[in-house]
């Protein structure tokens, strides 16, 4: 504390701490409820979930009904033709994780997106049938319902079937989402027939989107279960279209698809227990690695958005993302160094390498265990008994691969792009990855999806997650820090502007207005490069629930309700709803 600069920094930090509550951006008031809370990116799906809870279903039932509903009313990400993760914490403290993410087809090869010269074929892993991984959502939802739900399949599918067959009225955000991908969707006849009007005209606000083919598939799943999808017409139609249009999907891919039930990742941060996604997601491991590093710093004292805080967060992110990108992959194919990455001693060693006043250089970082050498959606649910569910699922990019097999109404994912197409070459999210995430038959690509439940003293405290590609991890992390370290309420926590660093490219991305001009100058003086990259990928829309109060201070005062929900305002048509 003798260094004069340190004294100034401490003074500024103390001042900003004292002023911090005044500095928060105005955010909508969190939604309050006593018995249950559902937060999703589409208000009709939120209502579906709340109705299930009101009718005696538990949080898993609601999660399944919401998952099917989003496949209809949020087609950019909600899906039957993609995959995802569900983190569950039951009222008795049991925890589990369902991995229903896509797998590479049996005919996939490590170099399938490279040309004869070994160069990446542009967009081959993003557009059309070659980009499609074997979908997992239908089997995932059914396993969740069978093992942890209480309601019948017919009950949980009924709202989705109704919205598909009878249609739903499009609001501004729905129209914007479809229009944004209109050009891509126009290239696939079956997709265009659903999502565009005559002559490729986009839908207008107030018009209805009706999806009869999807409704038919949903009805057959309600009647016959997942076999209706994996062994029935949809699988046949998808394989046929894939074979006709340059894909490699085969009937066996669908027959052999199986959901994995895994143990969630757990760590403790300042007395809070974090429960999140294990590999094949990097999400839980990397959130925990960053938190374990940050636990050694007085973040609440340094203050939200201060140059000191941003610098320390960025350095922790830099070290964690190099590990992510080099060392992690599908656990059936790769020996993931998870225990090292969560080790307090490892975090201490990282802190020892972080200079508090100088930016590190990503190029100098040695990947851990390196041997070699936009659109997703998240929803959070809690029921009257305290069962908590966090789900993130996706088609990967907006509207996935942009293709629908005729007769199915099902948009297919482009999850294959999450693999390393070529070591060292960035993917859609700019991630520069290595051999651990190379393509192999039946392998699952490494994900960043981080459906997370936080508990305190054995009770649910927070449910949180987000879309956002590689930024999912830092968005989820920052929402947690905003509540625990910076005292924000749940709405402020999901709405607050954000920063992101992912090792490579070596720069701090930040949303407009996150950093004041003098904070930016201070960071540049430390040696950081900054980018307010307004271009894609967009920052994801977090969905959060807090239990017992709208913020830590409110919880201490006893809170006026039991559950507080907030949907990020970045999701135009999202909502939090409860009863
Ligand atoms: O699993 C992953 O990490 C990505 N496929 C998620 C994609 C995503 O979040 C796109 N949405 N903005």
UniProtKB/TrEMBL annotation:
Signal peptide (from-to): 1-25
EC numbers: 2.3.2.2, 3.4.19.13
Pathway annotation from the record: Sulfur metabolism; glutathione metabolism
PTM description: Cleaved by autocatalysis into a large and a small subunit.
Active site (record annotation): 376 (nucleophile)
Keyword Transferase belongs to the record: yes
Chain coiled-coil ranges: none
Record's catalysed reaction(s): an N-terminal (5-L-glutamyl)-[peptide] + an alpha-amino acid = 5-L-glutamyl amino acid + an N-terminal L-alpha-aminoacyl-[peptide]; glutathione + H2O = L-cysteinylglycine + L-glutamate; an S-substituted glutathione + H2O = an S-substituted L-cysteinylglycine + L-glutamate
One example GO MF annotation: glutathione hydrolase activity
A GO BP annotation: glutathione catabolic process
Listed InterPro entries: GGT_bact, GGT_CS, GGT_lsub, GGT_peptidase, GGT_ssub_C, Ntn_hydrolases_N
Annotated keywords: Acyltransferase, Glutathione biosynthesis, Hydrolase, Signal, Transferase, Zymogen
Annotated binding of L-glutamate, by residue: 101, 394-396, 418, 447-448, 469
Subunit structure: This enzyme consists of two polypeptide chains, which are synthesized in precursor form from a single polypeptide.
Family to which the UniProt record says this protein belongs: Belongs to the gamma-glutamyltransferase family.
Name of protein: Glutathione hydrolase proenzyme
Gene label: ggt
